[in-house]
Amino acid sequence: MRNNRQFLGILFFSLAGPLIASTQDQTSVSTAGAPPKLLLLVHREIKFGKAGERQKLEASLTRAFDRLTVPNSWIDLQSITGPPKALSFDPFDSFEHLGRAADDWGHIFAAHPELARMQEEIEALVSNESTLIAVRRDDLGYRPDSIDLSQARFLRVLEVRILPGHESDFVEAFEILGEAYQKIKADLPWMVYQVNVGVPSPTFLIFVPMRTLQQNDDLLSWRKSLREAEGEVAARRMDEIARDAYVSAESNLYVVSPEMSHVSKDFARGDPEFWTPRRPPENAKPAASKEDRKSSVQKGAGSKQNQ
After folding, report:
1. Would you state the pLDDT for residue 297?
2. Beta strands 191-197; 126-136: pairing state
3. What is the bridge-based pairing of β-strands 246-262 and 74-79?
4. Domains recognised in the chain with CATH numbers
5. Predicted model pTM
6. pLDDT of residue 277
7. Which residue in 178, 157, 171, 189 sits closest to 226, CA to CA?
8. In the chain, where does DSSP find H-type helix?
9. Within a 13 Å sphere around the CA of 77, how many CA atoms are in the beta-carbon half?
């Protein structure tokens, strides 16, 4: 969970300045659930048949961290679409904050070797892992100051890779989209991050926090209205940008797992029953299969989804 990030925090600390300085200062919600300035995102694909074992170990390790003073929080997300994987969503205030946290984790694991061993057991269940760091773009997004991540149960993530030199085209496209959302008075906000390190080409991440899966129906129903709100000229420009500037665009849906997340007390106050559930005993049965969980999500029977 943490030891692979110690290296990243130290290595990339000096790369933060130019991009952070280029973002605009915008007043955002003064709550613990506001979108963070910096994101550390860790994608993990779990070995076949090891999802339940990984979940049990991760939940146990998280409970141990809950009893300690640890330097940062994280939200554990489980994939509903795309390859079976876990996504760790770690908010930070700055690269300096990330660097301090990385150093602190080294001390924690040195003082608690049993936790370091559990971490190694989890890493042994991972077949593939990638890490990236992204910075919030305050000049983009739609009503990002109204987002409270403590209320999110699902997260829709759109990853757009851009040809080098076409970043301004992406900005133009999402300014058009944001204006169209304003015109139809859409009530589903989203936030935009630009990847600073971790990918080979310019990449933007659009996060749409959702309380329920039903909000995906809203996105579908708005398609025609958004196209009309954009206008013929702007709509053609959007198509042109997508054709000439985008390398790829992939959208996936994740569900929040509170059992494997560690959030601050202030953050948890946004919905204490969800974020501080009664923890299962250490000898609890492994989680249901991904197929069972998907069935539960489709039936609306619960908010938890695992791999």
Report:
1. 45
2. antiparallel
3. antiparallel
4. 3-135+260-295 (3.30.70.100), 136-251 (3.30.70.100)
5. 0.79
6. 66
7. 178
8. 3-11, 17-22, 51-66, 95-111, 113-124, 167-184, 215-221, 223-230, 232-244, 265-268, 272-275, 290-299
9. 26
